[in-house]
Please model this.
Amino acid sequence: MTKHLNPIFNLDQFERKPRFINGFYKRDILSVEQFSQEDLNYVFSRADEMMAMVEKWGTCDLLKGYTLACVFYEPSTRTSSSFIAAMERLGGKVIPITEGIQYSSVSKGESLIDSMITIEQYCDVIVLRHPQIGSSAMAAKHVNVPIINAGDGAGEHPTQALLDLFTIKNELGCINGLRVAMVGDLRYGRTVHSLTQLLSQYDVSLRFVSPDTLRLPMELMNMLIDKGIDVRESHKIEDVIETADVLYVTRIQKERFPDITQYEEVKNYFVVDEELLKRAKEKMIVMHPLPRISEIDYRVDKDPRAAYFRQVQNGLYIRMALLAAVLGQA
Model:
């Protein structure tokens, strides 16, 4: 005769329900193309709330009982640590898979899809960085928890673009009417690609400064032209520094070059220093997605227009807002 045991838990007490059905609940964050201006305003409002919460209390229990898997197939400092900090400040738990993943299951021949389906069993949301363009979108087709794209090769970096736009808005008070100059690796720079697409929703002027070999991809340039955006290209920062409201500087990415000799030819092409900034507006900002190599002189850090470390801090608030939103808690 089978003995029936009393259950340890009343499972009704542990039922998790979304507080808000906000358009982001259980939604994958794969590309900036998903975001309308209404979506952006929503995320920025939640990020402002997260900023206020952190400044007043430091942490909360908004995501208590939820687990994030932070899966990075490429090295990362800021993105991985900010997602981990975001989840922990919201009271959630993190499975950090950020070191040695290429030497574990991948080295045994396991596919990305099998890895994601496996990791899905342990968590409520996955943040994924992978060197293959479209990897996050591919993974999202095979798992049932939200996937957040933390960078897919030379493709996109949507959360970086969101924090970049949030920084511009907070620093300068608006987005419409600004002149934004992007400098450096415009060909391989996924941060540039994603931010350019978001800015194309606004009334802005865009200036692209790069060597010929690192020009913005033609499909993005054609998109801007088709939208009627005021856009120009140049090879010199001096051509844009006096009129720029935002100087968005990127490093020349050695790891993206198929031929190392091409990298050597352009690695020190641009340097932003104190002398250059003497020609810039009093009210403007210098941004950088980091890490930097030599493209911004360290003495620039003391200039109040240097916004790149405030930009890093804003990444925490944006990622807190996104995690809470896709889990239905914001």
About this structure: The domain at 158-313 is CATH 3.40.50.1370 (Rossmann fold). Strands lie at 67-72, 93-97, 125-130, 147-152, 179-183, 205-209, 230-234, 246-249, 285-287. Residues 285 and 305 are 5 Å apart (CA to CA).
